[in-house]
Amino acid sequence: MTGPLAILLVGTSSPELQALGQSFRKFGVSYRHLSAQENGAMDAYFQKSLADAPFVPTLIMLDMDSCDPGAILAILKHHPVLRRIPVVIFGQGNDPERVKLAYGLGATCYMPKPENWEVSMTHFCSYWKKRVALPIIKAEDILATNPTLQHNRQ
Amino acid sequence: MKNRPIIAVVDDDEDDLFLIQEAFKACLKEEKVVLANSGQDLLAQLETLPILPSFLLLDLNMPRMSGFELLGKLRADARYNLMPILVFSTSSAQPDIDRAYELGANSYVKKPSSFDDYKSVVEDLCNFWLHVASTPSSRFLP
């Protein structure tokens, strides 16, 4: 019924990365990990790497403890194509201001890091993989927004 | 006094509203379900609620005010622009899906056809939005 769930996981590290990777493999969800060493990592991914490695996500998961969600959401939500991709922000704790911030930035939802990743990710994958219809994002459409890259790819 | 969490549903089809309500009964504990049969009805009911719904299930094909029009209105209103809105539609047309995300829907769920499927979809939906995600109202009630 729904298109494939392909997740770009941004900015998380051990042990969450292992737990998330294990869950994605268990539920047959394709994913890539992008370490956020700088706030421009997301920009670089879509502006440069995509031309060589066309993994186009249909969902982005963003660890707000290790990168600046404001900077990344600003890039995504102002992009004519990428703005359709749902972004799940996750992080430590459940502070109301943090939750409001995530939604205010345009995130699809805020997910507090759970004590038991296995249980939470079972619900996560069951919902996003089985129930949700996702936007179709084509690498060509993204590259078309940057004529220089499109030319280099040809 | 603590307010009960609220889930809102807007759908012009009475049969669908009944099925959704029955499906929610199987998986909800303390949450209250608010049902609206049109966009206007929903907007009027939202005015009276003590807290923001944990999420809204939004049908697309409604007369007078379509789901897309209602989605646009809610996203333009500072009182409701953080409320998670899940489009719940029989349409699996990709342009509808893409447009819903463009307009700020939090997700797009295909409406099932049988009651058993309704129960299973609603269970997955509640497990994620009520137990995994946090929403601006769901866990911080006054």
TrEMBL record, chain A:
Superkingdom classification of source: Bacteria
Gene3D superfamilies: 3.40.50.2300
InterPro entries attached to this UniProt entry: CheY-like_superfamily
Name the record gives this protein: Response regulator
Organism in which the protein naturally occurs: Larkinella terrae
Automatic annotation (TrEMBL), chain B:
Superkingdom classification of source: Bacteria
Keyword Phosphoprotein: yes
Gene3D superfamilies: 3.40.50.2300
Keywords: Phosphoprotein
4-aspartylphosphate: residues carrying this PTM: 59
GO biological process, one term: phosphorelay signal transduction system
Pfam families cross-referenced by the UniProt entry: Response_reg
InterPro entries cross-referenced by the UniProt entry: CheY-like_superfamily (IPR011006), Sig_transdc_resp-reg_receiver (IPR001789), TCS_response_regulator (IPR052893)
All residue ranges annotated as the Response regulatory domain in the record: 6-126
SUPFAM superfamilies the UniProt entry points to: CheY-like
Protein name, per record: Response regulator
